Amino acid sequence: MLDISVVIPLYNEEESLPELNDWLARVLNGMGHSYEVIYVDDGSTDTSWMVIESLIEADVAHVKGIKLRGNQGKSQALRAGFHDTCGRVVFTMDADLQDSPDELPVMYSMITDQGYDLVSGWKQKRYDPLSKTIPTKLFNYVARKASGLTLHDFNCGLKAYRCEVVKAIDIYGEMHRYVPMLAQQAGFRKIGEKVVHHRARKYGHSKFGIERFFNGMLDMISIVVLRRFGRSPMHFFGTLGFFMFVIGFFSAAYIGINKLYMLYQGYKTILVTDNPWFYIMLTMMLLGVQFFMAGFIGEMIVKNRQRVPDYYLEKEKNINNN
User: Fold this and answer.
1) Burial of 1 (0-12, 13-18, 19+ CB in 10 A)
2) Domain range list for the chain
3) Strand ranges, E, within the chain
4) How far apart are CA 180 and CA 188, in angstroms?
5) Per-residue confidence of the chain (322 residues) as pLDDT tens digits?
6) What is 2-229's CATH number, 3.40.190.10, 3.40.470.10, 3.40.50.2000, 3.90.550.10?
């Protein structure tokens, strides 16, 4: 087993890769530990994969490459990289040179000497436009309130993990923004952060648009619900369905009883089927049954599911000697 693995997801970063690789080699060789650097090409349309192949040929002992079939997203790229890591301490960082490899030695010490399970970078001073920094601050505030974690920068690409963490968490969709929350959900409690240097982008442009903030909020709701009900979906869907059915049933019964009472007293009244509330209550009963069945099916899926990778490989280079 190696001491360090560095997983770098990337998309169209051909210009920055040689400089980043040289910088990583200087830092990691200076640390004096065994290491591997895994580049995960998320379906780049430029020459990024050819650059990765040339880096592997130049340093076959340390550099590895994974190429995904098409652009599947950062979460799937990280998941593919985590699957093939061999290091006791795993780092993730972006390939755009905005994350500094010089931060790795201190973060490594925080994992190995101070006993942290996960250390997240905190870009205290950012070199990003206001259109990105303001939504990021709002996003981090909501994430802190939802998770209870006192982190300032959940979405920083530069993170360090004990190997057990990356093997335990299940990243999918766009959950890479919430890795600390996923680690907390998996039972890892010692989660800290380190102020890291943020560099201005040197090449290219950001690959993320404004839609990431809307997707991020939806993903956060998913994590909060799954953290509470993921192991027993019946507790959520079953409870909701039960109360909807009960409310609908007794409300519909009241409508029927009220109809009989009005007839008994000799008052003129409308037909039950002409009462719009009857259909509203009937709909609630049907939805209640559907929610209950959704919870039951969810329970069966949770009990019998098997983890299947949801990323699709095109190539691997220098992974497991291939």
Assistant:
1) exposed
2) 2-229, 234-304
3) 2-10, 35-41, 63-68, 87-92, 118-122, 159-162, 191-195, 313-317
4) 9
5) 899 999 999 999 999 999 999 999 999 999 999 999 999 999 999 999 999 999 999 999 999 999 999 899 899 999 999 999 999 999 999 999 989 999 999 999 999 999 999 999 998 876 666 656 666 777 778 778 777 888 888 888 999 999 999 999 888 777 888 899 889 888 898 999 999 988 776 776 665 555 666 666 666 666 666 666 666 778 788 888 999 999 999 998 988 888 888 888 888 888 877 888 888 999 999 999 998 888 888 777 766 655 555 566 777 878 765 5
6) 3.90.550.10
**Quick one: which of 5, 185, 209, 171 has its CA closest to 88?**
5
- Alpha-carbon span 166 to 184, nearest angstrom: 12
Say if residues 103 and 121 touch (Cβ distance below 8 Å): yes
CB 53 within 8 A of CB 318: no
Residue given tokens 């959950």 in the structure block:
175
Burial code (b: 16+ CB inside 10 Å, e: under 16) for 203-229 equals ebeeeeeeebeeebeebbebbeeeeeb
Per the CB < 8 A criterion, the answer to whether 33 and 107 are in contact is no
Q: CB neighbours of 117 closer than 8 A, spacing ≥ 6?
A: 111, 161, 162, 164, 165, 183, 188, 189, 190, 191
